Amino acid sequence: MPGLYFEEFEPGAVIEHATRRTVTETDNVLFSTLTLNLAPLHLDAEYSKNSIHGQRLVNSLFILGLVSGVTVPDTTQGTTLGNLGFGEVKFPNPVFHGDTIRARTEIVSKRESKSRTDSGIVNFRHYGINQRDEIVCDALRAGLMIKRSAAESAAAS
């Protein structure tokens, strides 16, 4: 698996994820309607012309999901036992149809699990950054990450 084991995460490390994604109108409309977020700022072009941005905004929860997803292959794919949750999440700049989003992850901290001997908790800070180098998403996340020794023991059995 391409993800990193608990031991491989070092606080202060920064990962620039190679995958980028241009957000489309279809992404925004589908996500908003599937999640029943019918806010006109996401769906109504005429309404949004009179907003402070003059156009529709991409649903912020779609952006959080996109940024989180982009980070998976380089950090947690196959090596996580679970996402423990998100802490503070900010959206300091809007995302519009046609914006291209990339992600950066900083390893904030890590510690041994208090209840499990096979894993530890890693705290990540994920940034979503648009093509203008503006931060559009800033999210703290905790993940329960397996230790290499536990993964090797499981593979041997």
Explain how this protein is built.
The structure is a single chain. The chain is an alpha+beta fold and about 160 residues long. It contains 5 helices and 6 strands, in the order E-E-H-H-H-H-E-E-E-E-H. Strands 1, 2, 3, 4, 5 and 6 form a 6-stranded antiparallel sheet that branches. The chain is elongated.
Task: Outline the fold blueprint.
Elements: E1 14-16, E2 21-22, H1 25-34, H2 40-43, H3 45-49, H4 60-75, E3 80-90, E4 100-112, E5 119-129, E6 135-146, H5 148-156
Computed CA radius of gyration, to the nearest angstrom = 18 Å
Largest sheet geometry? 6 strands, antiparallel
What is the residue-mean pLDDT, rounded to a whole number? 95
- Helical run tally: 5
Task: Give the ordered list of helices and strands.
Answer: EEHHHHEEEEH
Q: What sort of overall outline do the alpha carbons produce when their principal axes are compared?
A: elongated
Structural class: alpha+beta
| Residue share in helix | 25-40%
SS strand fraction? 25-35%
Oligomer: single chain
